[in-house]
Specification:
Layout lengths: L2 E5 L4 H12 L3 E6 L2 H9 L9 E5 L5 H14 L5 E4 L4 E2 L11 H16 L1 H5 L5 E4 L23 H22 L4 E6 L4 E2 L4 E2 L2 H14 L1 E2 H4 L1 H8 L4 E6 L2 E3 L7 H15 L1
Parallel strand pairs: 1-2, 1-4, 2-3, 4-6, 5-9, 6-7, 7-11, 8-10
Antiparallel strand pairs: 11-12
Helix pairs in contact: 3-4, 4-6, 6-10
Length: 270
């Protein structure tokens, strides 16, 4: 029996993955903000699967909640076979958390950095460890503003999104250097997914999502099928995918230096 950890596992694609792996006989730990949503997830699976489901309540835009969740995972599980980083909450404007950090950077990168680096030993003990980071690959190589990671000056959704995506690709360099047996995948869906929209966005995006989702979107359970195949047969090293299609990794001459520089900046900020 494998241990599968899913952040953002109470909604959308994360919940679809949780249901799949519980039905497949795996142990699943879901991390999310809502116990009520986890209870609804449990009610949707067969009773025999429910003892294999665990829940850790956490707001992953808060560093302290991330650390508490990670400590719980390390205390309860000697081995983690798959770590699926799927938590999402879209903000089009800059927002500062109660810890004084920019919320999107905290949720979409700092949280993932902490899970990837602090659970490294738990993943190392697995036979075929894999991380799936649902950060759509393909951001340009120079998208990280090392002088202003939290974008206090000139925040835009586009800049913030590109920086998070590129930082998560670079995070794979750090992860696989420490564990050459690890498969580290940056992954995004091939097309729009019909899920509940989590975020604070403008009316235009809400309307577009409400109209286009039912017309053009794929069901969450269909969207995650490529993730399931990748988790069930992981290959060591870094890779990038849109749906089931492998993409070339964005590469630049400074990749390793950027990885080291990013790690140093994050450590200093924490």
């Amino acid at each position: 029996m494998r241990t599968i950890v899913i952040t953002g596992g109470t909604d959308g694609m994360g919940a679809s993955l949780a249901r799949h792996y519980l039905a497949a006989g795996e142990r699943v730990v879901v991390i999310g903000r809502s116990r009520a949503k986890f209870d609804a997830l449990l009610a949707s699976v067969v009773p025999s699967a429910r003892p294999r489901a665990g829940f850790i309540a956490a707001d992953l835009s808060l560093v302290e909640d991330n650390r508490r969740a990670i400590d719980r995972l390390m205390r309860d599980h000697d081995r983690i076979d798959a770590l699926i980083l799927a938590a999402s909450y879209i903000r089009q404007r800059r927002y500062v958390t109660s810890e004084g950090r920019e919320a999107s950077w905290s949720l979409f990168f700092l949280s993932k950095y902490l899970f990837v680096t602090e659970l490294a030993e738990s993943l190392r003990t697995a036979d075929r460890p894999v991380i799936v980071n649902t950060a759509v690959p393909g951001a340009r190589a120079d998208a990280i503003d090392f002088d202003d990671l939290e974008m206090a000056d000139g925040f835009t959704f586009r800049r913030s999104n590109a920086q998070q995506r590129r930082a998560n690709e670079v995070l794979g360099i750090l992860a696989t250097e420490r564990n050459p047996a690890l498969g580290y995948l940056t992954w995004g869906p091939a097309r729009l997914v019909r899920t509940g929209f989590a975020g604070e966005v403008g009316t235009g995006m809400k309307v577009a999502t409400a109209i286009l989702g039912p017309l053009l979107g794929q069901r969450a359970e269909d969207a995650v099928r490529p993730i399931i195949r990748l988790v069930d047969a992981p290959a060591p090293g870094r890779a990038a995918y849109r749906g089931a299609e492998a993409l070339p990794l964005t590469s630049g001459a400074q990749d390793e230096n950027d990885a080291a520089r990013l790690a140093a900046a994050v450590r200093a900020s924490l």
